[in-house]
Amino acid sequence: MQKEFFQYQAQTTPFASGFEVDRAEGSYIYDPQGNAYLDFVAGVSANTLGHSHPKIIAAIKAQADKYLHVMVYGEYAQEMPVKLCALLASATPAPLEVTYLVNSGAEAIEGSLKLAKRYTGREEIISFKNAYHGNTHGALSVSGNEQQKREFRPLLPLVSFIEFNKEQDLDKITTNTACVLLETIQGAAGFLLPDPFYLKKLKERCEEVGALLILDEIQPGFGRTGKLFSFEHYGIVPDILAMGKGMGGGVPVGAFMSSKEIMQSLSHSPKLGHITTFGGNPLIAAASLATLKEVLESGLMDEVDAKEALFRSLLVHPKIKKVHGRGLMLAVDLADPDFTLRVAKRCMENGLIVFWQMYRNEYLRISPPLTISQSEIRKGCKILLDVLDHREDTTH
After folding, report:
1. Domain that holds residue 219
2. Within a domain: 394
């Protein structure tokens, strides 16, 4: 299978591992020989409840027995998508009320940008340096790493970039600005947090000039920071909320939310302002609804702070410079990209799955499922620390 993987399936890096997956359950992925690998990545923050969670599997099977795709988005009333959107509305603060279901986080960003431009009648978009919002053309246009973008230009015009956490740059948001797009926690840049009052000042500036604030919660959303969405830590509410990844517990999904007034602007002048064939797919919505219910009702979010504290107490080593992030969204600074790649490879050889940050390869990603136990945290951290202690292949 590995040979055919490299021969027939498109690759995204020169160093994909080709690891063969046989099955996955809980916090572990198993290879065909039955070896278990403790997963500290959770599908890059996607598997909120771990692998093969029984409530998600049951929801998928129940829906599969009824029907799959029946009509393009927004035409038929289907039980699972309607219940999912209703529960999202009850779980988020006003004026967030109406949800548009799509297929991925990148599509959620695309829809959010279109919605902001349509509602405000403005053209300028402001994003942030080192931001990451996806790889479709629009999402790439508002991502802030030029190395990832230069070979794909021309991209969207009238996109400007300001410095994250730099209050002086907020003056660049003007009456020409349709929207400001921000990751509540900058992901690919190394899980960087906003300063305590930065988001409030950003929101106030947007309100002053009539620009919409779009928050990208594709990674921190669905409980990863101890709140359903990370913006809840900062006392603000976005005009548009984009989500994805952990929303589905392991299936491909995304969504963007707003007020009914704002969202209605996609339905006219022109109609079909955003359209998607498979957005709101009932099978995907069933999995997402099961995930959201479990996150809200299980008490898992209440355990996040203690699990973060445990990680931080264990991740102490001369080769670890700092641990960035919040909750179960942590980035371990190992100072050197090549060293970090070697550490990740060595951890895999010892039964621990870790990864690296997209733009900051010197950071080792730790984003396990919310269901991870304290004993599993201790086990995984011991493997990582043992690897850092080992001189061979990890000399730095």
Report:
1. 55-297
2. no
